[in-house]
Amino acid sequence: MKQPSRSCLVIIIMCLANLSVSAQNPNSIAIYKPIQVIDTFNHHDTTSLVWIHNFSYDEKARPDTDTWQSFNWKNQLVYTDKLVYSYDEGTNRLIARTGKASRYYYYYDNLGNLRRITLENFRNGLWSLIEETILTRTSLADGKTKVNIIWNKILHPAGKADSTSCYFNIDYIINTTNTVEEKYIYRYQYRDFKTPLYNRFIYDNHPNPVQQITLERFFDWEFDNQNSNNVVTKSTGTKSRSIQQYTYNEMGYPSECKIDKVRTRVFHYDYIQIPLQKNDGNYRKLNLKTGLLLYPNPAQTEVTMQAENISNGNAVVRIYTITGMPVREVNYSVENRKLQAFLNLYGLPQGNYLFELITQQEKLTNKLIIH
What we know:
By secondary structure, this protein is mostly beta strands. The chain has two domains: 6-18 and 33-273, Beta Barrel (Porin); 280-370, Sandwich (Immunoglobulin-like). The chain contains three helices and 23 strands. The strands form three sheets. The protein has a 16-stranded antiparallel beta barrel with strand order 1-2-3-4-5-6-7-8-9-10-11-12-13-14-15-16. A hairpin with a 5-residue loop joins β8 (126-139) and β9. It starts with 5 loop residues before the first helix and ends with a strand.
């Protein structure tokens, strides 16, 4: 049977993905989420590899499944799989992504920091550990955090004992607003550097759609892009090592990202209807037409912030402790008088917090409980 071309598959997927959501339900909230990402790698002006990811979400707006397909340069379907996300319902943390031939497991320390990721592949009727990522966090004197990431490959040579080889060793410097500032590469692709390769990150002021979903094969690429805003440039002093050019949609989210002229990502979104939880008392008291909405509330590891009928242009979101101490600040650009953004609450202890959204003409506030 002849396989349909990649273009036909994309059209079919797009038609399904763009079905309108159900009418507004007073007992639910519509959250804007990426439902499809088409990732194309180009080589010598010809398409070489394409990955298509289609995402579904659970009733808490968390990624539920990632159904993906890969195509070669001949438009032939090479592989397809469906990764299912699993969470610790007590902490809301991701603990596994499992498919028919691959399964990822995530481990955390007592403070909730990610400390280890393992990848197992199914081969010859058995699951085998093939990769291990180890994260070590160190608090710095200036209040910043250093995260060292070591990625080990587990080798299984025939007739010999298993061995471990370090593929990369990288330090990240994270500032007090939980944003990656710098990257020091000591080893990459089994190669050591006498002088570490250095990257400094520059961001736009638009919401980042890929904070919660997982797209990258290499974990350092994933870590690069887990901030509230999108990476525009990775530079070494005055020289840019990587440039990411974005086109934005009417909601201010990236619709396309071109990376160093060799890679293009296309994003498609839809509104996901999420039922309100019984304990969302703060949310029920707010009016979508005038207020700053936070969902869920109380929250654990992340929160979706939403506001409508606000002024276009630059806006800033600040988070304060209940005593008035600022703990986080993120800049955004408001378009079509709407703002929706996903915020990771990593590093914020349990307690009560005040969210403040300031535009050119408004100042909206709401309280959030982290537990």
